[in-house]
Each structure stands twice: as structure tokens, then as C-alpha cells.
Amino acid sequence: MKKSDVEQVLISVKSGKEEALSIKIYKNGIIARRGSGGLPGVKISGMSFTGNSLYFEKLMQSVSQQILDDGINHEEEILGDALEYVAAFYGVSKNEDHGERADWAESTVLRFFMDEGTTFRHNLLGFVDGFAIEAMKLTDSWYFDIVMLALENRKSSELPEQTIVSATDKEEDLEKDFQSYFQQVNKKELPVFVKDKTYADGDGNVSHLTFESDEASLTYKFEPVTQF
């Protein structure tokens, strides 16, 4: 497919039956993500309607026309647990929808379904792995705000008005997601994620978020913004 026709990017990483990462970024401004790329998988998911194509344009800078010319579907015998890496590109809507309900006429899919002990190497596998990391970095700050909204019911000043969050209703499962997320996230990036942001609770009370950490633990707290 032509690079100019791409309107949606989908990235997926799975280990066995567990999903480590799922990201969808649309040219029309929709971004969606679940997971932090590690295991156990973080099941908190979010979707925002940003109203612009900035995320899409930044991510597509890494995609050449050559990548889109030929897809690949590599499958091998699974002796242990399976690993699956997918990067898919879609475009040219057949039903005039350019978001979640789009029926795409054009696509290029790069899929690698491998045994965990594989010795398989391919330049496109390296691309998909690096592309997934790039997409995570691009959406990390936004996804942090999604996690905070799910865990603390506090909405970041940077989250678009049209934002949807999905998380488990079970307290014990939410606690597992909390532990998994903060084990997998780069702790050094956390102060960057919250810089120049405020977080509002359901009553409209606004706070800054600060972190304290050492080698053994990480804590955070919401400090009310002083009104003058």
C-alpha cells in the first residue's frame, strides 16, 4: 500500500496467551493503548480523541515506503510458549469511517509468530520490535495519565476531554495492574510524565503529583494546588 494511504497503525506484542502491549494510532487523532510491554500484562486500557494527527505523524516518520510494499507472516513450530509481534497498517476507508468502525480496503501486515526459544532473525522483525518501543515512548506520558485516572480517579490536565478508560472492577486485580505497571515503567521518566500537569478529582479539586523513590520503593502523593 502507499504510505500516503495509511490511516491506522496497530501494534501488538503477546507472550503465550497474555498480551503485553496493544497500541492503535489513527490519522484522525484517535489513540488507544493497553499494556506497558512487559509481563504480567497491564490490563488498564484507554482511548482519547485528540483532534489532531501529531501522534500519527511522529510515528509514521519511522516507516518507509519499502516497509509497506510487502507484508510478512512468519509462523514456526511452537515447542514452548509462543511470542507474537505484529505491526499492521490500514487505509482507504470503504465506509467513510476513519476510526474504530472503519472498513479498510488497503493493508500491510508484518506478523511474527515464534517459539520463545527461536533463533529466527529477520530485518523486519527488528523493525517491528523497534517500532513497538517507539510507539510506547511516544504514548508513555499519555498512558501514565490513563493509569492514574483508572487507579486514582484523577484526570490529568493534559488528557483530551474525550477520553475513555477501561479497568477491572475488582480491587485485587486493579492492585495487580498497579504493581505491574510501576514495575515495568521507567522510574526516571515519571517526573517528566507529570511535569506542568495538574490532576483533578471528581469534585474538581486540583493537585500536583510528586514522587519519592529509593532503591527499594516508589511512592507518590497528590499535593493540592494553592489558589490565590
Q: Helix tally?
A: 5
Q: In this structure, how is the largest beta sheet organized?
A: 8 strands, mixed
Oligomeric description of these chains? single chain
- The strand count comes to 12
Could you give the distance between the termini?
56 Å
The H/E string reads EEEEHHEEEHEEHHEEE
SS content category: alpha+beta
Radius of gyration: 19 Å
> Order of strands across the widest beta sheet?
5-7-6-1-2-3-4-9
Stretches where pLDDT falls below 50 for ≥5 residues?
none
Residue-averaged pLDDT, rounded?
95
Basic shape:
globular
Overall tally of structural domains: 1
What fraction strand? 35-45%
Can you summarize this structure?
The protein is α+β, with helices and mostly antiparallel strands and 228 residues long. It has helices at 54-60, 65-69, 123-152, 171-184, 190-194; strands at 6-15, 18-26, 30-34, 45-49, 72-75, 82-93, 104-115, 155-156, 163-166, 199-200, 206-213, 218-224.
Overview of this structure, please?
There is one protein chain. With 228 residues, this protein is an alpha+beta fold. It has one domain (3-187). It has five helices and twelve strands. An eight-stranded mixed beta sheet has the order 5-7-6-1-2-3-4-9, covered by helices on one side. Strands 8-10-11-12 form a four-stranded antiparallel beta sheet. A hairpin with a 4-residue loop joins strand 11 and strand 12. The N and C termini lie far apart (56 Å). The model has no long low-confidence stretch (mean pLDDT 95).
